[in-house]
Every structure is written in structure tokens, then in C-alpha cells.
Write a structure and sequence with these properties.
Layout: E1 3-5, H1 11-21, E2 25-27, H2 39-49, H3 72-78, H4 83-95, H5 115-134, H6 139-155, H7 158-169, H8 193-197
Parallel strand pairs: 1-2
Length: about 210
């Protein structure tokens, strides 16, 4: 446990609490912006989110102007009298995992199913849905379904489709219109027999 010291907040009061309680301090920037010049863009986006104008935007709806990704030399200038806070920041950073594999998909399994079981469940649901949708599954539709299933298996998206299926069935009155994105994009979003089967979209490029 640490006490957070952030430029732009009441650092002295927070530091007094840290020293009085014995809880070590840690320096943070509460970064909401990459660069300080991004603050006005941040305010604009917050005004849109709050459905208001910039002149009426309440300060508490935004981060502080000092909440940007400060490099160490900058944040050190705010805390020259608390070097241990910066040391603790480095200690926490060193403990973080940074060996990310951006090729892997991180997604919870559907109802604790193994990958093969989830895929076979998806295949069964897809063909059952295609029969309800089209009546007779033509060779063209079958080929398109198999093409999409191949992509889904390669990308390990079966669990994703099954989870979205449950979400969509909670609100069956709404339905997307599909998309004209090329097949290289995520298969969950482009108009297809797969998305149509799950009620995610109402139009199919195969129909």
C-alpha cells in the first residue's frame, strides 16, 4: 500500500498523512493525456461526453492540466523533497509484467469450455441458425460459413462470438445493420452469415 503524490493535487497534505501514518509515498502523474497540449482536446471530448458546451463544462468532469505523461525529469521537479516517492514508483514499475504478446488474444473462455468445444458449439449454432435464416443452405452459403469459421478458429474468436451471442439475446429487439468492411477486419463486425445467425446484424452479404 502506498500514498499517491500527484502534481496538481495537495501534495503537502498528502505527504503529511504519509509520514504520519507510515504508509510510503509513491509519485504518479495520473496521466490522462500524452502531452500537456492535449488538455484542450481532452476538455472537448469530455464536453461531448457530458452533452454540454465547453463554457458550461464543470472542472470536476476533467482531469487536471498537470495530468499528462510526465517524463522523470519533469515529475522530479515537483517532488525534489520526496525522493523516496520516485524510488517507489520505479520499484512498482520494475514489478510490472511487460512481456506482452500482441499476437495472442486474451479473452475469457465461454462457460469454461475448452477451445475445441467452444468452436464446435459455435459451428453447431451457426448451421442451425443458417437453416432458420435461409431454409436451405446453398453451396455458396456453406462455403462462406466455412471460410468464416476458418478465420474464427485461426484467430481464436469462438468464445468471443458465443459471449456476444448471449449478450445480443438479452436485447433481441435491437439489431445492427452490418458493415462493408473487407474480410481482413474482425469477423464479428462485417456483414456475413455468421453475424446474421447470431442476430448481431440483419443483413448478410451471402443473401
Amino acid at each position: 500500500m502506498y500514498v499517491e503524490l500527484t502534481p496538481g493535487s495537495d501534495i503537502q497534505e498528502t505527504l503529511t498523512f504519509s509520514r504520519g501514518s507510515g504508509v510510503p509515498p509513491v509519485a504518479t502523474a495520473r496521466a490522462a493525456c500524452l502531452d500537456p497540449t492535449d488538455f484542450e482536446t481532452h476538455r472537448l471530448l469530455r464536453a461531448i461526453a457530458e452533452n454540454t458546451t465547453l463554457s458550461r463544462l464543470r472542472p470536476e468532469c476533467c482531469c487536471a492540466p498537470s495530468h499528462w505523461l510526465m517524463p522523470p525529469p519533469v515529475i522530479e521537479r515537483y517532488l525534489p523533497h520526496v525522493p523516496e516517492a520516485l524510488t517507489n514508483t520505479c520499484r512498482i514499475a520494475d514489478q510490472c509484467v511487460t512481456t506482452w504478446d500482441f499476437q495472442a488474444t486474451i479473452f475469457p473462455s465461454f462457460r469454461h469450455m475448452a477451445a475445441d468445444a467452444a468452436f464446435e458449439t459455435l459451428r453447431t449454432k451457426t448451421y442451425n441458425g443458417a437453416v432458420r435464416r435461409y431454409g436451405v443452405i446453398s453451396e455458396a452459403i456453406c462455403a462462406r460459413i466455412e471460410k468464416e469459421l476458418t478465420v474464427i478458429r485461426e484467430k481464436r474468436y469462438a468464445d468471443y462470438f458465443l459471449v456476444v451471442d448471449e449478450i445480443v439475446r438479452e436485447s433481441p429487439r435491437t439489431c445492427g445493420r452490418g458493415s462493408r468492411q473487407p474480410p481482413r477486419s474482425s469477423p464479428i463486425v462485417w456483414a456475413s452469415p455468421m453475424s446474421t445467425r447470431f442476430g448481431i446484424t440483419c443483413c448478410s452479404s451471402a443473401s
